[in-house]
Amino acid sequence: MSTLKTLVGLLFMPVPLALGVMLLGLVFLLLRRRLVGTGMLVMAPLLVGLASWGPVADSLLHRLERAHPPLLDASGLEDVQAIVVLGSGYYANERLPITSQMTDTSLVRLAEGVRLYRQLQDVPLLVAGGSRDDAPPIADGYVRAARALGVPEDDLLQMDWPVDTAEEAYGTVEMMGEGATVIVVTSASHMRRSIRHFQHVGLNPIPAPTRHKAGMPGEASVAYWIPGSIHLRKTERALYEYMGLIAYRLDHRWR
């Protein structure tokens, strides 16, 4: 089911969607429906162009990222039982340093988790993330990187089976118990959906969003107003999360 949702999400990204619209437009032209076919052929590059434009990408992403403010200082929090770092990506390669084996998103999430860990001192760091194939689980990479950053073995908890956010929430409640207060560390765009999953299983999550992408320095530059791949990736990130929120609502409505 998780693989199917990922596939559907990828197919509705701007580039695959635009290619589908172009193919459909060609079909209409072959059927001599010239007005419809021509309209679709014009619409396809326009769709990609808008998705690659900075103002559009930031507008979509900002609505997600502002849902929860960053947790700048956790030192005053009480009864926190764990800092949970949600999984992202890890590609094991012993010829490279561990920092090169983690994706950029994973490194930022882990760095934020370690920062909060140092503020709280006596709260364990729970790292999450499994693997959909025979590759080592993401949590293994997190553990290795956390050790390299000075987190003691005794303060590390590992959850190496979840392959999506829902499983991470269920795994956390199994390990920490229902009603536990946990700090959830993930990308700012992913936080709204993550908090809903953690609340649904009976946890008391405290959001600690990181890796904010919308509204970053550079909006005044010419490059910001010219369509480009960096903006397209922001749009893809936002669309994936919006579809994830829809899937969450439908999933719980059908239960």
Quickly describe the structure.
The chain is an alpha/beta fold.
Descriptive report:
The protein folds into two domains: 2-65 and 222-254, no CATH class; 80-209, Rossmann fold, CATH 3.40.50.620. It is built from ten helices and five strands, in the order H-H-H-H-E-H-H-E-H-E-H-E-H-E-H. The protein has helices at residues 2-11, 14-30, 34-51, 54-65, 98-101, 104-120, 138-148, 165-176, 188-200, 229-254; strands spanning 80-85, 125-128, 156-159, 181-187, 204-210. It has a five-stranded parallel beta sheet. Helix 7 (138-148) links the parallel strand 2 (125-128) and strand 3. The longest helix has 26 residues, at 229-254. The protein is elongated and about 70 Å long. The protein starts with a helix and ends with a helix.
Strand content: 5-15%
Give the proportion of residues in helices.
40-55%
What is the CATH topology descriptor of the largest domain?
Rossmann fold
CATH homologous superfamily classification of the largest domain: HUPs
What Rg do the Cα atoms give? 21 Å
Spatial gap, N to C terminus? 15 Å
How many strand elements? 5
How are helices and strands ordered from N to C? Answer: HHHHEHHEHEHEHEH
What would you call the shape?
elongated
- Helix tally? 10
Which CATH class of the largest domain? Alpha Beta
Structural class, by secondary structure, is: alpha/beta
Mean pLDDT: 91
Q: Main beta sheet, described?
A: 5 strands, parallel
CATH architecture of the largest domain: 3-Layer(aba) Sandwich
Number of domains: 2
Residue stretches low in confidence (pLDDT < 50, at least 5 long) are: none
Strand order of the largest sheet: 3-2-1-4-5
